[in-house]
Amino acid sequence: MTDLVRWGILGTGKIARAFATALKDTPGAVLTRVGSRNVASAESFGSEFGLPMEACHGSYQAIADAEDVDIIYIATPHTAHAANAIMALGGGKAVLCEKPFAMNRREAAEVVALARAKKLFLMEAMWTRFLPALDEVKRIIASGEIGAPVQVTADFGFAADVDPDHRLVNPELGGGALLDLGIYPLSIAAALLGPVSSVRAQAEIGPTGVDVQTGFVMVHEGGAMSVCSCSIRARTPAELTVSGQHGHVRMNTMFHRAKSISVSHEDGSSRTVPTPYVGNGYAYEAVEAGRCLREGLLESPHMTLDETLALMGVLDTIREQIGLRYVADA
Q1: Nearest CA to 318 among 209, 226, 195, 186?
Q2: Residue 186 pLDDT grade (very low, low, confident, very high; cuts 50, 70, 90)
Q3: CATH class of the 132-276+311-329 domain in this structure
């Protein structure tokens, strides 16, 4: 392929707009097509991002079939991720699929198996895993400055004042705090401490039958522990701290918007390290996907498909413990 990576987007909602905006900050990337279930929505989206009307489709399949698309970003509701990814891969396209990657591990495994059979690039769009602040945290851990990391604490929550049919609380659309927000601390905890060996969870189930608050404690291979929570009832600090014997590192402000990290030592000394943060933060995952395509990689070494499958399995276990089931689990 050429150095220019041509993107198609499925969906025209908030996340799709955030990603399309980020493509403007992504070197060597261009948005060529958008698909929606409604052509008027696609045309409105396209007008906003400078696409000609003929590149705006009232069909997802049209994006999978388009010859001027190298990779498709899937920004549809959770419940459609697996089917949309299978469709895109069936059209011979690379795929960057928004989190949660699927509704459960079974669905995720079907998508991964197809990508591997077709030898097409596939990655979960866990954008926080590619932030420079997280890279700096990993660098400091690797230096031994805080000692071996043995604990992560992380939370993510906001107060969602939405109608019962809104996707955040609608079980038919995969609603709930865990799949929408809990996946973020879960994924970063695994990135810092390694694979999860066990998890224990509790939750508050809301009136629509989905979780509105969930807390979970994980033990990682090697014995380190993470304590994570998510909420759509409370605006939490959204902080992440990783600790070792000699100190801790904190991703400042909200960890998904961190423009600096703080390192604190057992002697009371500390320092702050500024880290880059371009635009709305989504550009970094687009850069990684583009790099992988240019280098002929079928998956990112920083967000492997095996890890995505493992994390989907952890989500399944948490949901089983808190009694949260979706139609896709039948």
Answers
A1: 186
A2: very high
A3: alpha beta
Where in the chain are all domains bearing CATH 3.40.50.720? 5-126+282-298
**Residue 50 tokens, joined:** 């400078």
Q: What is the mean pLDDT of the chain?
A: 97
Distance CA 81, CA 98 (A): 8
- pLDDT digits 0-9 by tens, 149-163: 999 999 999 999 999
Residues forming beta bridges with residue 240, ordered by sequence position: 154, 251
Q: Is the preceding omega at residue 100 within 30 degrees of 0, hence cis?
A: yes
Is 118 catalytic? The answer is no
User: pTM for the complete prediction?
Assistant: 0.96
Instruction: Out of 14, 99, 138, 259, pick the active-site residue.
Output: 99
Per-residue pLDDT tens for 2-56? 689 999 999 999 999 999 999 999 999 999 999 999 999 999 999 999 999 999 9
pLDDT of residue 234: 97
